[in-house]
Design brief:
Blueprint (H helix, E strand, L loop, with lengths): L1 E6 L8 E3 L1 E6 L2 E6 L5 E4 L4 E6 L5 E7 L2 E5 L2 E5 L2 E4 L5 H13 L8 H19 L7 H15 L4
Parallel strand pairs: 1-9
Antiparallel strand pairs: 1-2, 3-4, 3-6, 5-8, 6-7, 7-10, 8-9
């Protein structure tokens, strides 16, 4: 059994016991099971962590950047921000996304302001793509396939 811990500067999410964890790194998706070799991975700037318990319960969490470490059946994710799918307020996220799209940075804004604007949009879009309900194994695989295809589509 794996122990998943997701930690941000503001909080630590409750630990989750999983038989499988998938993280989205800058190099692609990484599937982790018990006995996985030790590894550290840089997370995608706006991605997710998907964990499935032996009971079939699935927890999906949006994560904003960071790193993941796998060592001795412990998966530790250190992220700038994280929100479980069932805590996403879609109406607020959509409103903020609409505001950002209607108010892009000035054309003469520095590169860091423009990058921060794009990063926040990607973060909000990631939250909206998360499934809100507990998924079956087949639904989880379908969601992962759809997310991989969306991730490979240029924006």
């Amino acid at each position: 059994m794996l122990t998943l811990r997701i930690i941000t500067p503001e909080r630590s999410l409750p630990e989750f016991q999983a038989e499988h964890v998938t993280i989205v790194s800058v190099e692609g998706e990484l599937g982790i099971r018990t006995g996985h070799a030790a590894v550290a991975a840089l997370l995608k700037p706006a991605g997710h962590v998907l964990a499935r318990a032996k009971s079939g319960t699935v927890r999906v969490t949006a994560v904003l950047g960071g790193v993941a470490q796998v060592c001795r059946d412990q998966v530790v994710v250190l992220a700038d921000a994280a929100i479980p799918a069932d805590q996403v307020d879609a109406a607020k996220v959509k409103a903020r996304l609409e505001h950002l799209r209607a108010n892009p940075p000035a054309t003469d804004a520095d590169a860091s302001a423009q990058a921060a604007h794009r990063r926040e949009i990607a973060w909000l879009e990631t939250q909206l793509r998360l499934p809100r309900q507990v998924l079956s194994r087949d639904e989880m695989l379908e969601h992962a396939d759809a997310h991989a295809k969306a991730s490979n589509t240029p924006h």
